[in-house]
Design a protein that fits this description.
single chain, about 150 residues, 5 strands, globular
Length: about 150
């Protein structure tokens, strides 16, 4: 069985890297939990990209089977539907594993990190594992405090 680090590196190689800025994985597929076989759990990723439209265009060309019927409308349409949020491709078969990955813009991700909490970071009450060196805007101070609810 490969280590989780080796598996995540393999998975990341399948994505277009031109504007991929940061990636992390989370959940029971990334962290061993008591009594759980990690190899049967979905491996969850978030990919932070400068241009969701360009990423989706390139990723549809490389990994079109990951997408729903929206792939037929192109990367621009997928990015439009994504808006300022996260677009997830779920239940993607990869070797003997299943992966799920969300795509979010660098701006939206940085906004979350400084406390606006509308997209990604509020969803995580679980540990995350950074993949590679994070590249975040120097103007975005990393807040380690839990996100406050928007209610």
């Amino acid at each position: 069985m490969s280590s989780i680090g080796a598996i995540t590196r393999e998975v990341l190689r399948r994505f277009p890297h031109r504007n991929l800025q940061y990636a992390f994985c989370y959940g029971s597929g990334a962290f061993q939990q008591t009594g759980s076989d990690m190899s049967s759990n979905v491996l969850d990723f978030v990919l932070v990209v400068n241009s969701p439209e360009q990423f989706h265009k390139e990723n549809i060309a490389a990994n079109g089977s990951d997408y729903s019927f929206l792939k037929h409308f192109g990367g621009k349409s997928v990015a439009t539907i994504q808006g300022d949020g996260v677009y997830y491709n779920t239940l993607v078969p990869y070797q003997q594993r299943t992966i799920k990955y969300g795509v979010v813009s660098t701006k939206a991700f940085n906004d979350d990190l400084i406390g606006k909490c509308k997209n990604v970071m509020c969803s995580f009450a679980v540990p995350t594992k950074t993949l590679g060196d994070p590249f975040l805007s120097a103007s975005s101070p990393l807040s380690l405090e839990p996100c406050r609810p928007l209610i």
